[in-house]
Design goal:
The protein is an alpha+beta fold and 279 residues long. The protein has six helices and twelve strands. Helix 4 runs antiparallel to helix 5.
Length: 279
């Protein structure tokens, strides 16, 4: 469990000093991303969303607040500039980032900085790339099964990769349970940027997201042949079309999608990436 310690000693800190901006990572019409120290907590990211209008954002980030998902960036807070979040609004107003009203529709996301490793993907083995893919896709499966959240925009820019000494990670869900172990092969993935995410019970939209994830990943890292890729995408598309006509139980859909992926990827990875404990 992550500990949200943003409030530690906050009463002793002048609101003007509660944020120390160490670097500006991005500043455009939509987002203003600051590498910061907040209430003396280092390595924090403040993402100021200036022109992003997504009715699901509030629910998504509050669901992910202090979460325990291994492959999602730690989320420490989500609020609006008009709200008062431990003097954060006052500080941002004084720095000229927001005016504290409803008029500018500014959302504020506080999360942990993920220090991404410089990785030469051309030197990664098939098993390492498959592990990265399954960390992403199983996180998507578990997240959807547990919360109805669909990322909708999983692409190379929206996950970060770090090196790890951990051998594997176990993925579980509440009853009815799914227990799967993924061997990490030296790398840990963090999903970021749920700004286009949705909360949706229509399962065909989830399968559509899996299709897009497969396209984005395998077009960049072709660890399966083009024939295998085409068969996988066609199977997923056909299943999505079926679900548009009949909405099947969410757990059954998650299991079906997972079995499709294993069908086409298992021949190249065997037990070197995925171990199914209870499914």
């Amino acid at each position: 469990m992550q500990n949200n310690n943003l409030s530690n000693n906050s009463s002793e800190i002048n609101p003007r000093d509660c944020i120390i901006v160490n670097d500006i990572l991005k500043n455009d019409d939509e987002t203003y991303i600051l590498l910061s120290e907040i209430f003396m907590q280092k390595d924090m990211i403040i993402k100021v969303m200036k022109n992003i209008y997504n009715p699901y954002l509030n629910s998504i980030y509050k669901t992910l607040y202090n979460h325990e998902y291994f492959n999602i960036v730690p989320i420490y807070g989500f609020t609006h500039c008009k709200d008062d979040f431990k003097n954060l609004k006052l500080t941002l107003m004084e720095k000229g980032i927001c005016d504290g009203t409803d008029n500018n529709q500014i959302n504020l996301l506080i999360m942990k900085e993920i220090k991404e490793e410089k990785i030469d993907f051309k030197k990664l083995s098939t098993k390492q790339l498959a592990s990265i893919f399954f960390q992403i896709i199983i996180t998507s499966l578990v997240l959807y099964k547990e919360t109805d959240i669909i990322h909708t925009d999983i692409k190379l820019d929206n996950f970060k990769i770090t090196k790890t000494l951990h051998d594997s990670e176990k993925y579980t869900t509440r009853h009815p349970s799914i227990n799967i172990i993924v061997k990490l092969h030296g790398h840990r993935v963090y999903l970021i940027d749920f700004d286009n995410g949705i909360i949706e019970k229509k399962t065909y939209l989830f399968v559509e997201d899996v299709i897009n994830t497969c396209k984005n990943f395998f077009n960049a890292y072709p660890i399966i042949t083009s024939d295998t890729y085409n068969l996988l995408i066609n199977d997923l598309k056909n299943y999505k079309n079926d679900l548009e006509r009949v909405n099947i139980n969410k757990l059954d859909v998650v299991k079906k999608v997972y079995k499709m992926l294993l069908k086409y990827l298992n021949p190249i990875i065997g037990n070197d990436v995925i171990i199914i404990l209870d499914y």
